[in-house]
Each structure stands twice: as structure tokens, then as C-alpha cells.
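In the laboratory, one determines a bound structure by crystallizing the protein with its ligand and collecting diffraction data. In a computational setting the workflow is compressed into a single prediction: the sequence and the ligand go in, and a structural description comes out. We illustrate the idea with flavin-adenine dinucleotide.
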Amino acid sequence: MYPPKFAYEAPKSIGEAIALLEAGGGEAKILAGGQSLIPMVKLRFASPEMLVDINGIPGLDYMTIDPDGTLRIGALVRHEDLEQSTTLAATHPTLAAAASLVADPIIRTRGTFVGSLCHADPQGDWSATMIALGGRIVVQGPKGKREIDLRNFVVGPFTNALAYNEIAIEAVIPPAKGTPRGSYLKLERRVGDFATASVAVALDMNGATVGRAGCALAGVGGRTIDANDAISVLVGKTLTPENIEAAADAVAAAADPRTDHRGSSDYKRHIVKTFVTRILTNIAHSEQKAA
Amino acid sequence: MSLDEIKIGGMGASRRRVEDNRFIRGKGKYVDDVVLPGMLHMEILRSTVAHARIKSIDTSAAWEVPGVRLVLTGEMMAARNLAWMPTLSYDTQAVLATDKVRFQGQEVAAVIADDPYVAKDACAKIVVEYEQLPAIVNPTQAQDPSMPIIRDDKENQPTNKIFEWEIGDKERTDQAFADADVVSTIDLHYPRSHPSPMENCGSIADYDRATGKLTVYMTSQAPHIVRAAVAMVAEIPEHQIRIISPDLGGGFGNKVPIYPGYVISILASILTERPVKWIEDNTGNLISTGFGRDVYLQGQVAMRKDGKILGMRMHTISDHGAFYADAQPTKFKIGLMHSTFACYDIPAAHLTSVGYYTNKAPGGVAYRCSFRVTEAMFFQERMIHAAANDLGMDQAEFRRINLVKDDMFPYRTAFGFLTDSGQYDKCMQVGMEAIGYDTFKQEQEEARKRGKLLGLGISTMTEPLGAGNSREYDIIGIKMFDSAELRIHMTGKAILRTGAKTQGQGHETTWAQIVAHELGIPADDIVVEEGDTDTAPFGMGTYASRSTPVAGAAVAMVARKIRAKARKIAAHLLEVSEEDIEWELGRFYVRGNQERGVTIQDCALAAYSNIPDGMEPGLENNAYYDPPNLTWPFAAYFCKVEVDAETGVWDVLKFVAVDDCGVRINPMIVEGQVMGGLTEAYAMANMQYITFDEEGNCIGSNYMDYLLPTAWETPGFELHEVVTPCPHHPIGAKGIGECATVAGPAAFVNAVMNAIEHTGVRNVDMPLMPNRVFEALQTGKDVSGMPPVKVG
Ligand SMILES: Cc1cc2nc3c(=O)[nH]c(=O)nc-3n(C[C@H](O)[C@H](O)[C@H](O)COP(=O)(O)OP(=O)(O)OC[C@H]3O[C@@H](n4cnc5c(N)ncnc54)[C@H](O)[C@@H]3O)c2cc1C
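The predicted complex, in C-alpha cell form:
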């Protein structure tokens, strides 16, 4: 595994990094955790002329909650930071459930949340959770900052909406409008495997009634599947078995899986339905217990 | 006064592995750690397609890359008569393709450059023009007359068939089936799997024109076979060839064959007069080197109503890839497949086998097994499982009726093997008790009422290890014995060398324990060395669980020769006649006067300082061991699973392994071997998948697709032991390196099948991925694993 020649730069500020991207004219790439980019370069699937390593830029490793409940995740927050958070399960159960299912423990020490979003892998776990949560990404370029809804950020397999001279600096998750409930279920063949099929569900509950409902899928389409519309059948309703089934059917219909060596498209669609049902049923049970 | 054998690290001591000292510190010395002055680096360009005529290869742009020293193509190899090389199964294999490429990943050209980055850059600049041909990815397609002939390079090869072979008594078997009350039939596929050692293959060839000597550092489990082969192919005299196999990062059979990369690096070194290093990458290893298995079975068992098996039939159809390169005893075309059913008392058996070429990588290596024994025992245990069901009999009871009884040894199997010892029923009892067999059926029923699917699977087998005696076993004419050479230094320390080659088995630890047991020299005082053909005595290498049965026996025998000489020296030192000398561990003494004695160390010193008249000085010797028979360990494995009916995912609730590998030299290493083997068995049963699409593209050519299990998902294993010493092995050992990979897979599969066969399904081919199990549950129909895989 010998990559082609590339230049390596380690800027000390975001401004410097943007200048390097500008100079690179589209041939420079940001290096964050390197857990996707380095394998691609070693396999020669990608051959950037320059790697701009942002790991030395101070102040990007924060995970904070604004007074209004907005969660902000800086560009150098590692998967592991989310996994080890002691508060995330209460505030963002969907993220907490996914954290220990992303890659394997070794990769989680290095790979970044924001890098994973930028990588736009159709099988990536974080993109699905972010779309379910209605998350946005803050990017910065020579002309300043802009915010992009994650649904518009992931534009295709391994393709994001960044201009060549922009850096993603932060992921933003809006506050819940009610009690946050949700989870992430993933069918994988082994630890460190990408999803054969996975489901992110995020609900904001008002008592037993669903306020906001979000859902997205990984592994079952050419890009992360936005199933927010599909699961919106639950809004204003309670989690009865009938309502759960209707939602699960709607979400499964939104999936667009391919038949491959991991299973038929029917099977993967069935898994989506099963996982949606399991997540919603679990939420219904815990709501009942709480009540 | 006798020494405490455990304290000196002798037989039965769970001595810590001495090699681990350097391995866990990252101080092992592998081929890639060797750096020679002036060394160049080689990279191989591989075929992107599975079957195609080569119209042209343009290397001109590669030659232009600064730092490139040599670009080799098949044409240039052919000019030196090296475009093809012989395989271990009397076939030929392309070194660099000339006429056609026959599998995706085949070696097409090689670049030799100042550094590996440059070599890789230059490879990308070689332009190959292919004219694609239809790809054959299974034996059914291979038999299709409208499909191309893969080996059109060979004369007398009008079809894609490689061989037909049969063994057993057809008439008696037919009669047994005619007499049967019940006949059970099952079709199976043991899919392609890859040994995937942590370290890939590689070599550093160093040809010195001044001395005429060729030194090759090489990832080889059998360096002496390589030396012989190089002498024959490259026409370099054998004394001028030195093969050094340094530390190996695993082998599992993958490092037995001779690969094109080794041969190309040798020619490159001859041409450039510089050392040339070639280190394969992960995809190169997975896509082109010796795979295991890929055999289809049509199996039948004939039974009486009372459960007695009257006969069995097997027809195997094997997929060997583009070159028949199986590493196996030459006499047998499908390895030791006919060792199947050796643990059962069956009067009549018949095996027919046919092998085909396909557009897949060659190999058929014994991936952690004794030449197709893994397939033989997996088929056996799946057939037994189906047969018991067809009879409506309990799985354990059916096995216990048919297993060879203790008083029947030595037992001649229907295919002619002689098994010599074992306590099969006792192993069954130990395992049944540990898994809670008697209460399981009730547990299963109750669970089913709660919507849970539980299953219990059994796998029992005896396998033939330690090939083998010279009457029956050779590879390309070379008899399969092994050797050991032992030198005792004057201070009583020693060096032992053998013709085996450790690759994780722990020879450096266990061989010293055998010497300690025989001579009473503490194991810590003995250094063990293997793998350098200039220093190690000739041997056939390490695979097929043969090291302890063959080389290990040679170690005991050479130690006994040393003891015999030391006894003479002791008599001289003690001034008594040899007949009056008694031995206890580490010490000779005068019969009737135990106080008066000399230690083995005293004798060693005397061998160099005070020898009796007429005796040759020194204390060293060697031994070649030609085993009288194979050794036959026994395994009884019990696995309990739960299947999630909604997803097809299954979890192992408990796994009990009872192994009888005879006398255990180092119980800790034995347990390590069993744990490792069961992990590999679990991987094959659960997740490992190399398949091909219709165009012959290999799916599973990287470690994101071809999965190695981690500690996370690997179940826990509960190990038990029964010890029946081997009657003919000098220390009673039988070998344990492969029992678990061989017997393991069927235990997992039988357990899952047991959980889901109420739907009517009889078989799901490995790997039992959730989607397959789910499909079986939904349809009640068998799920086949035959490629091409569906996509879209
Ligand atoms: C064996 C293995 C298993 C894995 N399994 C999973 C899995 O199961 N699920 C899963 O979701 N992921 C998995 N991954 C991927 C892993 O999560 C990566 O960490 C993640 O996809 C990318 O994050 P990174 O920080 O490593 O990004 P990098 O590899 O550094 O970068 C990835 C891409 O994003 C770009 N990029 C990164 N950060 C920024 C930024 N701030 N601004 C602009 N562009 C940026 C880079 O230029 C590059 O194109 C696996 C990886 C490996 C090696």
C-alpha cells in the first residue's frame, strides 16, 4: 500500500488552512482523523496533491450545548468523545446509540464526527443520525461562514456540498422540542463493519404524543436516505402498534437498497422495517413505564 | 533426587512461549524487516479482469519513470523459460501471463525500482490491452460446452476438467444402499475461504554472481521444498541455494505453495545483480494466493431403522481455480477427502471426485487442515446431522451408536485408513454433560413457545495428521519424513534444529520441552532454530498438523540417541559397565546406589574433555523420522445458539470443545491452538465470504469485505480434555494444530440448522450470514452459496 506522492501541510489556524486549500486549487484535501482519507490514498482511490492536516489547529475539539439546547460539535471531536460522553444519552439518545457502533474502538479514537459527515459515505453512521436530528453543518471559506442543512450537504456517494476552498468547522444539532427519544440500530457483520442496513430515529415527545419525528437510513441507498417525510406520519400521534407499523412501512418504502453479497434488496428493506419497529416499540415501552 | 519435570519446563508444563518475548515487543524479524545493501523493490501489476486474451502490453512509459531499473513481462520470462512453473500437483502455473489472463489478480508484469513507491507509480503506467472472454466462476459453468477452455495452453486438455478420482468399494456400497431402510441425501458447498495470515507473502532474492550463490529470504512454511523446486526450475545447483524463512506472521497453509512473486524476484535479482525485495499487499494476498476449500458435495448415508449406518457415498466436485496448484500428497487428487467418516464404524463407502478449472485464483491449500480434511469432516458431520434427522433419531444417540468403540482399535476404515486409539464415547459424555445436553430439548421447546429459536449442534470427528509414512506419502516424489539435529554444548546447553518451520505454533517452546523431557536439560537451556536451509536438516515443513507427529517425534528420537551416548560416557565417568547404569530425569546413577551418579551436564562436559578410549568426541546427533502411521486425534464439539427470527442474526450461547490430542506437551499452547482454530471455524461459519460476480470479479479481496472476527464478536469457548496416548508416537502425541478448524464449522452450522429446521430447511451454505438464515426461515428452502453472487 504505497500512496502516490503528496505534499503535507499542517496549518495552525483555519485561515491558514483555507489559504492552503485556495492555493491547492482543488487538488488539496483536508486531513482530519484520516480514517477514511488515508486508506483511500493508500489504495490510490484518491490522489490529492496536498494534505492539509487540521489536527494542529487549536480550539476545534469542543462539544458544547448552548443555553437553548443547541449542540455544537467541533471539527476535531473524535467518535470516541461522543461514545465516552456521560450526558449525551439523556440529551441526544440517537447520537449516543450510534457512537459505539461507528467503526471499531481503535478507529473511534482518531476518526472525527465532522470528517465522517464530510466523507458522505452512503454507509456512514453519523450522516444518518444528523439527518434524523435535523442537523446542520457550519462551513468556512475565504468569504466567511455559511450553514448547510445536512440534507443538502450530502449530495451523492462520497460527495458533499463543500467548495474546494471551504472547511467544515462545526456540526450543529437544533434543540429538541419536547423530550428527546430515539436510537440507532445497525446490522453489521462484525465490529468495524459498515452497515448492511441501519436506522436512525429521533423523536421529540410531548407526553405520549410525538412532536417532531426524524429518521434516516444508512447502507440502503446510493447515499444516506432521508426518511424524515416517511416517519412524519407519526407527528401528533401516539406510539400505538398500528401507528408504529404504518411508520415502519413508510420508512421501509423510502429505502432504496441494492442486492449484493450482503443480501437482497428485499432483505435489507425488511431489516429497515424491523429496526424502525424495534426502536419505536422500545420508546413506547419506556414512555409507558415513565407514565 | 529426580528433577521436577514441570519445573524444568518438560512435558506437561504450561511454559510461557519463548518466542512471545520478541513478538510482543515488536522485535520479531520478518522478511520485510530484512534490509540488504543496494536492495531494489518489486511491485507486481495484476490483471483487472478474470479471463481475457492479452493483445498487447506496453511498458515503455514505466521504463521512463525515474528510479525504475527493470520491467518484466511474461514474454521476457518466456525467453528464459520461466513464464511457467510447475505446481505441487504436477500442473503448470503462469509466473507472468503471456497468452491469456485466467483470473482477476493474476500476475501480468513486474516493476523493479529504487523504492516501492516508484515501483507502484510505474506499474500504473503499464498499458495492457485485454480482449475479454466469458468468465467461469463455478464448476457447473466449467462443464458447459459453450464456455471457453481455460487451459488452452495445455495439450490434451479438451475440457475444463482436471481429474476424476475414486476410492472405496462401489459394489459393496451399492449393496448397502439396496439393503437400507432409510437413505439420507444432502447437497452442500464448502465455500472458498482464505487463510489470510497477518503477514502477507514476500521474498528478498539476493543472487551473488561472484560466488554463484542465491540467497532468498522468503515467507515459506516449507523452505526445503522451495530449495528443491528452485534447483529444478532455475537450474541453480542445490548447494548454491539458501532459503531463509525468518519469523512468519502466520501461515495457515497459505505459505506452502511457491508463488510467482518469489520466482520473479529471483530472476530480477539475477538480472539486476542486486537484492530484490517483493512484499505483497493485502489485496494481492487475498486475490491471488492459495485459498482453501471450494468443494461441492452430493452426499448419501444408508441406514437401518435402528440407527446403524450401513454405508455412505460421496461425490465431490471441486473448484481449483485456473491452475491445479493444490499442496497435497501427490498420490491423492483431492487430498485426504477419503478420511471422511473415519470415526464411524461403517462397513461400506465409496467416494468419487471430479475437479475443474475455473477463472479464479489457484490454491486449494490445506488452510489449517491436513489436505481437504476440513471439507471431509464438515461434509461428514453435516451428512450425519441430516441422517439423524431423516431417521428421527437424537443427534447424540445416532453418533454414539455409530462411533468406533474403544475395543475396536486398531480399526480399519472403509477407505483403508488405520485408526489406532481413542475414547470417542467418553469424549461424547464429557461434552454432553458440559453443554447440558439432557435438558436441552425441553429448553428448546419452552423457548420456542416464547418466540425464541434455540439450536444445539454437535460435531465429532477423528482426523488423519502427520503425513506421513514414506510408503504412502510424498510431494512431487519427496517422501514426507522429517528431521531433527541436536547439539549439546560442553556446559550442558544445547541447540536444536528441525526441518519443520514454526509460524505461530510455538516450536521454539515445545521442542525444547521434548528435549527437556528426554534428557532432563532445562528447556530454558535449549535454543531452537528452524527455517534456514543452510543450517537446518532437511524436512518437509510445517502444515497439515505434521510438526509434532513427525518433526516432534524426530526431536524425541535424536534426544534418545544423545542419551544413549551420554550413558556410555556416564559409565566411563562412574567406572562401571553400561549395564549397571540407571537413568532418572537428567541424571545417570549406579544401579543400587542412587547417590553415585552424574548429571547429563557432567556427561556433556566429559564429551569434550574426558571421553572413553575409542569414542568419538562431542555430543551431537541427528534423526530422521518416518512415521509408521498417521496420528488420529478426536474432537467432540457442542454448540448452542439462539437465532433472531426477525433478522436471521445468530448468537452463540455456549460452546463446549472436548479434544483428545493424546499427550499434551504444553497444555497452554494446546488450548491456544484450539481457541484460535475455533475462532477461525466461527469466522468461516458466520461471516467469511469470498465470492465472484458474473464477470469473475472477486468480491472479498480486501479486509473490509473479507472479515476476520475480533475479540468482540468471537464467542467464549469452554475447553475440556481427554487423553488417549498415540500408541506409535515416541511421546504419545497426536497433533492439535487443526482439530478446531476442522471440526468447528459443522458444530456452528448444525446448531443454527437445529434452530431453524422446523421450517423444513435442510441446508444453508456457509457462511451463515443473517440474510441467508432469514431466507431459509421465510421459505423453508435450502440456501445455496454457489457463485456468481446476485447484484443489482
Ligand atoms: C476499518 C474501518 C471501519 C470503519 N467503519 C465505519 C463504520 O462502521 N461507520 C462509519 O460511519 N464509518 C466507519 N469508518 C470511517 C470512519 O468513521 C472515519 O473516521 C470517518 O468516515 C471519516 O472521519 P475522519 O476524521 O477520519 O476523516 P478523514 O479520513 O480525515 O477525511 C475524510 C474525508 O472528509 C474530508 N474532511 C474531513 N474533515 C473535514 C473538514 N473538517 N472539512 C472538510 N473536509 C473534511 C477529507 O478531506 C476527506 O475527503 C471506518 C473506517 C475504517 C478504516
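Residues 199 and 249 of chain B are 5 Å apart (CA to CA). Keep in mind that any predicted model is a hypothesis to be tested, not a measurement.
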